[in-house]
Amino acid sequence: MSTPTPRRVGLIGWGAIGRVVGGALAAGDIPGAELVCVVDNRPVGDAAPVPQYTVEQALDHCDLIVEAAGQAVVREWGEAILASGTDLLVASTGALTDEELAKRLLHTGPGRVYFTGGAVGGLDLLQAVRAMGPLDEVRLTTTKLPSTLEQPWMDTELLARMRSATGPVEVMTGTARDVPVKFPKSTNVAASVALAVGDPETVRVSVVADPAARHTSHVIEASGAHGDYRFEVRHLPDATNPATSQVVPYAVLRSLAALAGRTGQIL
């Protein structure tokens, strides 16, 4: 039996997520996947174990691109990557709350687009339940440190309440279409839940700032004709980028292992 050709991986983003993912790939921790290059808008120098390319150069050398640099990358380059015949693994799922962009990505090829669940679990079960019929109600409550949720659009009153809070403060409520637009670096989980449920408008999201939040928490509550479901996860924030959780790069690596064909995976 011949050995399958390894997936040639290009990594966009050499930040909190990208460094962990790139280091694991370079160390050979994901059998069947080989890190070929890194793409970043800043020079990474000797920090990266492989050459730094532009996106266009990466497409000439890779068959799989991993996005670990934010929603703007998905918007700017997603279609071009897929149209080149290169597969795309998206970590910043919040970009997909743009309905037109999501449609274009899902219908652009021959490359294939994949999404990682990131910092939340239970999405596979929600997809299975959805196959039996629509869910009546889905709620997500995300709680983070106030400093990780501050945004340019916030008025002085809201910022003051967040900065002086001694307990939880609800910062925003809305649908899974509305919230990721307002918090592009902090609420990819809302978009991931919406992808699993199949309708961003069905998912009601509450974003909470809590100065005592040593852990970032996500609570998903869903109900429908076939049952009731509740998932809660609590993660330590990444030390270098508290807006993301420590577990996110490992979720990306798990998805990469599945795409590379590792056996024994729970899918």
UniProtKB/TrEMBL annotation:
Aspartate dehydrogenase domain segment(s): 166-252
Catalytic activities: L-aspartate + NAD(+) + H2O = oxaloacetate + NH4(+) + NADH + H(+); L-aspartate + NADP(+) + H2O = oxaloacetate + NH4(+) + NADPH + H(+)
Protein name from the UniProt record: L-aspartate dehydrogenase
Pathway(s) it belongs to: Cofactor biosynthesis; NAD(+) biosynthesis; iminoaspartate from L-aspartate (dehydrogenase route): step 1/1
Signal peptide: none
Domain of life according to the entry: Bacteria
Ranges where the Aspartate/homoserine dehydrogenase NAD-binding domain occurs: 13-106
MF terms (GO), sorted A to Z: aspartate dehydrogenase [NAD(P)+] activity; NAD binding; NADP binding; oxidoreductase activity, acting on the CH-NH2 group of donors, NAD or NADP as acceptor
Organism: Streptomyces misionensis
Lineage, uppermost ranks: Bacteria, Bacillati, Actinomycetota, Actinomycetes, Kitasatosporales
Entry keyword Zinc-finger: no
